[in-house]
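Quality-control log, excerpt.
Job 1 of 2 completed; input and output follow.
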Amino acid sequence: MRLVGEDGQQIGIRTLQEALNLARTAGRDLVEVAENANPPVCRIMDYGKFKYETAQRAKESRKKASNVSVKEMKYRPKIGKGDFDTKTRRVEKFLGEGNKVKVTIMFRGREVQHPELGKKILDDVAATVEHVGKVEFQPRQDGRNMVMVLAPDKQAQARHRRRLEAEAALAGGETLQAGSAD
């Protein structure tokens, strides 16, 4: 078998017994790293430490991975202004948290004959939250429901945040000027 040392240097081709003896004298483990190679490749290493470091790297990569969940908000074609505003604020909050939002219009009875009402509501929702999200899937009829998916838009959120900060700074400057005039 081909033997590789702890620091990655090539030791050479050795018999199994020689490789085991070298690993024991170093106080390390002999680990087969490429069994399909000709000859098989083994490495002298601390296997416990190797497993621990691998687990830590996997844990770190899972921590960095973003968990995007899909939230759902349901509307009706005859929704009132107050309910529309409340639900749309919730959609805005979900998008601000980095979640995707599935917006559903539920039709009952003969309402399904007027899909343009549902389309108008979905367009209004998309227009209202365009500063934090973008339409990922355009509205489409799905049986008695019309569905649209919104996704968070990081660039739009950053632009909106900068605009709000500028407005706040402007409003703060006007307040200071008005206060100093007294």
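Job 2 of 2 completed; input and output follow.
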Amino acid sequence: MKKINNCFLLILLSFMVYSCGSSSKNNAVISGKTNRTTAGSTEESATKNISRTSKNPNARKIKSIVSYAKSFNGTRYKFGGTTKRGMDCSGLVYTSFKKENVILPRTSKTMATQGKAISLKKVGVGDLLFFKTNKRKNVISHVGLVVETRGAIKFIHASTSKGVVISSLDENYWNKAFAWARRVL
């Protein structure tokens, strides 16, 4: 029985290793990507942001999800964490959506298959950004929740070095690691 429990624990830990990638303290560059920030003026972005949430029948849910995610700002990083005591990137997104009874998979890699793919030009508050942060593996390893689209796209996420923070897609590290965006609501 003890061997089975140890084996199960090992498999579970192996699975969780792929849920969130690290964010480097020195913003290491991942080569081979071009700048993918949105084009257009700040005024256009602000208009898109307002129309996305005001015309969307899920606007109230989106606002609640983003607000709840922001309540974790400053929480330390903890692998597999989903509480104020510690949070990982997919745990933050999973917990925030769950508050509004939207159940997503628990890992960033599996989350990256949910909803519909959207271009950065159409990204709005509440959408998910997915990243490939491991230089050696070409897999999704990090997720962030868009909290602002005026000017630069800003997203909240749990970084291994800083915990839960809001970052910008204009930051070199995140821009180069960006893979795609998806809309769940």
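Post-run check on job 2. Residues 6-19, 21-51 have pLDDT under 50 and may be disordered.
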